[in-house]
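sorry for the late reply, my laptop died twice this morning and i had to redo everyting from scratch. anyway the thing you sent over, i finally got around to it. pasting the sequence first so we're on the same page, its 514 residues, then the predicted structure underneath. double check i copied it right bc i was rushing
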Amino acid sequence: MTEASARRRGRGGGGAARRAERTAVSIETAKYIERNIPLFEVLNDEALEIIEHNAETVLEEIGVNFVDNPAALARWKDAGADVDGERVRLPRGLARELIKTAPSQYTQHARNPERSVVVGGNTMVCAPVYGPPFVRDMDGGRRYATMEDFETFVKLGYMSKWLHHSGGTVCEPTDIPVNKRHLDMLRAHMVLSDKPYMGSVTEPSRAQDSVDMSGILFGKDFVQENTVMTSLININSPMTFDDVMMGAMEVYAQNNQACIVSPFIVGGAMAPVSVAGTLTQVLAEVLAGISYNQLCRPGAPVIMGAFVTSIDMNSGAPTFGTPEASHITYGAGQLARRLGLPYRSAGSFTGSKLPDAQAAYETANSLNMGLLSGVNFMLHSCGWLEGGLVSSFEKFVMDADQLGILHHLAKGISVDENGQAMDAIREVGPGGHYLGCAHTQANFKSAFWRTNVLDYKPFETWAEEGERDTMSLANAKMKQMLATYQKPALDPAIEEALDAYVVEKKASMPDAFT
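ok and here's the structure:
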């Protein structure tokens, strides 16, 4: 506020102060979800034991490949595994013994301590879409993503009440060289938001850059003693661990940063078509990946991931929001809990090309599945479109709004004195109404979840306002959010140090676009 505007506000008295309060930007973020509801369990104990036994058999008899990573092979051999070339076979029970050092939950610290999140137990943390090379909105259509698009998503994530995490590669900025774009992306998360974020995994040196930049933001000692990043390590299913992802995981584990160890499975292509067969492979892969994580640093925070979808056998395209994916996600959640590990899965999944009815159905199925399966870290919780090829601005806003429903579902049903509402029932009696009773007046502001996007107005009002559909409403909401965005405060010295790091690193290497 300028000095002149301050004087004007002072002359305006109470009325001006109240107007200023109404128009002030208030960035509210809900606390991460804490479930107070039962989880859905699709498998009985016998089925779980069969899958667990079969997964150990896969590790013992078939094994997994660790490609182009002699250091990993040496670690495995020292740990007692049978190493034959790049094939690693784990004696029954070895992986389970190694993962005992992995924590059941951890705190990921944000630069704003009020936005720090707890991952594990009964919590769920929602993070946005990750990885698409394309973006889409009503104004520009479908196009390759740019750094400007990336920064727009980070701002929208910061402004979204129900989104707890800034995420990582919310879209792939193709206008920046491949070997340098991670620097700009990290800087955007660190400077344009104060929520937790993810680090780069596309090359071990980029993971180290993520650690070094976090050291500038938080302080080097703080980073070594605390977790400030949760980053995605994908397994090349079936049962292959490449040197790039494993190299990044080694960097993060050795620096006490969290990794999501996650198979990337399209059922029927990268895993069996049956649910039990896929769960067996998922469990074998995560047991091998997480146990290797603990070989790198016992006690490093790590999440069991399961990204699983089915396939359309006519076109070969992945499908989302299907019952098979739900069964696998529910079952993997049970397996994660039996291992005592945090769990990552689900998201705003859809194969639709637009944020339309198909997108809404498939996304609703996927989000609710995530809540009820016990997911602790939900990547892709908003913005996913076209099977993960596209980050949609409108769908980001629509999905982020709907995450509020998950918060309210997770609360469960209160049966305290206020929840029982006996005073209201007595006050109103037969034939009355509850609109004006004391209980309603005391609770109406918080009793019901409220959308910030969807239209609940009467038909006449809706028609007068242009008969806008949901995508149009989300587009308008997006523009309103961006118009009121204000960068969160950051020590100028820290921002200058981050900028200097980015400039120096970029200058140290030629551009590469492959």
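Residues 1-24 have pLDDT under 50 and may be disordered.
thats about all i looked at so far, will dig more tmrw
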